[in-house]
Amino acid sequence: MNKTDVLDLVGIGIGPFNLSLAALIHPLEGIRAKFLDMKPSFSWHPELIFDGAAMQTSYLKDLVTPVDPTSSFSFLNYITKKGQFYHFLNTNRGAITRIEFQDYLSWVSHELEEILCFDRAVSNVSLDNDHFLIDNGFEKIHAKNICIASGPERNIPNCVKGLIGSKVFHAKSKEIEKVDLSNKRVLIVGGGQTGVETFRNILKGRWGSAKDVHLISGRENLRPLDEGAFTNEIFTPEFVEGFHSLEQNIKDNYTKSLLLTSDGNTPNYLQELYNELYMDRFYLKRFPKYRISPMRWLSEVHDHGQSYSAGIKNLFDGKNEIYEADIIILATGFTSRLPDYLNGIKDLIDFDDQGRLIIDENYKIKGRFNGCHIYAMNYSRHGHGVADPQTSLMSWRSAKIINNLKEEKIYLQNESQSSFINFFNS
Ligand SMILES: Cc1cc2nc3c(=O)[nH]c(=O)nc-3n(C[C@H](O)[C@H](O)[C@H](O)COP(=O)(O)OP(=O)(O)OC[C@H]3O[C@@H](n4cnc5c(N)ncnc54)[C@H](O)[C@@H]3O)c2cc1C
């Protein structure tokens, strides 16, 4: 194998995380990289781009700005190039919508065409002496290092695993785009942001006039995201670096306590929903029958052919409740696991005592890869903390990976002043 045929890096998956890495690699000389995705062209959770759904992260924490404010792939450059700068400012918003974020990402993906390849589903990665072989159906690409960012898996509760189809489906699936809810009884499982957005859109008749809609959540209530200034100090490079070096059991307990920091509902969104419910109950009277039930856990589902009996445990009194549903939408989140395309080299990878990947401070998976590296994005919530699945620090993480790959400080890393909170120093 000719040395020049071996790339320095292949990125698997082109979501925002590898797109950030690609945007920061692009202007550099001396890194030969390619990024692969199974989709025909760039898109970002298209099933869940509802009108009015806002990003939970500032647009300044885009693909590049925190580590290279001069990059041409910034959100500000995008908005300026589109001729919208002044109008954007006049909208006077701190958060942009998901529609805008997806369009910004698509714009960057067009700018990076020469290193992004779509319609390339990676089926297998193997180790060929001193480099990886990445099989995507069309070709086998040789690369010294890979960066996996192919997204988490949909989390499907065990009791519905055998029922997945056009009437029982995860909210992030093609089914939601074509479902007709006219005159249907709908159960939504999950009261996080996706569950609440699905609920609100059903009330407004996005998929036809439903007959009845029931939102259940295992949480204590519909709870707002904790966006406090001091809370947000955990979304800093300094915090992530300090957190990574803690003992695993301390990290696990601390991460559990931060559920609302990463997975709460957008506060404005909850307020708008409440106001709409108020207007509808007392004035407009257009919404279908609905119920919002916290502290409920879906425990069993029986298939009656045309409908389903959902057994729901009431966590307040321990009693079982039954809801007859025609459609069940699972807003049950995501879970991180080793992608199938790494199964062939699984024996070379080290896992912790809970079967999780061990990922070092530079986002490299621990294993025996003959001097090659597997970088991983969005596989280390347990190791790097709740920022890992979020866009908040994605550009900083990309910078860390590039600096590590080049063994040189190319991008700014932890240049900010120390936190107002003394998290780790004694
Ligand atoms: C609806 C929604 C809204 C969100 N909003 C926010 C927010 O406001 N703020 C925030 O911080 N976080 C948010 N998140 C969380 C997180 O930022 C996103 O999930 C983000 O998309 C994760 O990026 P990613 O690049 O890891 O994965 P993804 O965006 O999931 O991209 C993974 C890509 O990998 C590709 N792929 C998978 N398998 C293969 C394969 N075998 N071969 C080739 N390609 C493959 C897929 O086609 C996909 O394009 C949101 C998540 C969702 C679902």
**Can you tell me the CATH architecture of the largest domain?**
3-Layer(bba) Sandwich
Q: Into how many domains do the coordinates divide?
A: 2
Distinct bound molecules: flavin-adenine dinucleotide
CATH class of the largest domain: Alpha Beta
- Please name the CATH topology of the largest domain: FAD/NAD(P)-binding domain
**Helicity level:** 25-40%
- How far apart, in Å, are the first and last alpha carbons? 52 Å
Q: Which whole number gives the mean pLDDT?
A: 95
Largest β sheet strand count, sense and barrel closure? 7 strands, mixed
Unreliable stretches covering 5 or more consecutive residues: none
The number of helical segments is: 12
Name of the CATH homologous superfamily of the largest domain:
FAD/NAD(P)-binding domain
Radius of gyration based on Cα positions:
23 Å
| Percent range for β-strand residues | 15-25%
Keyword list:
single chain; 426 residues; alpha/beta; FAD/NAD(P)-binding domain; 2 domains; 7-stranded mixed sheet; 5-stranded parallel sheet; binds flavin-adenine dinucleotide
How does this structure look, described?
- By secondary structure, this protein is of the alpha/beta class.
- It folds into 2 domains: 221 residues, FAD/NAD(P)-binding domain, CATH 3.50.50; 139 residues, 3-Layer(bba) Sandwich (FAD/NAD(P)-binding domain), CATH 3.50.50.60.
- Helix content is 26%, strand content 19%.
- The strands form 4 sheets. Strands 1, 2, 3, 4, 5, 6 and 17 form a 7-stranded mixed sheet that branches.
- α1 packs across α12.
- The radius of gyration is 23 Å and the shape is globular.
- The N and C termini lie far apart (52 Å).
- The chain binds flavin-adenine dinucleotide (FAD).
- Flavin-adenine dinucleotide binds next to α1.
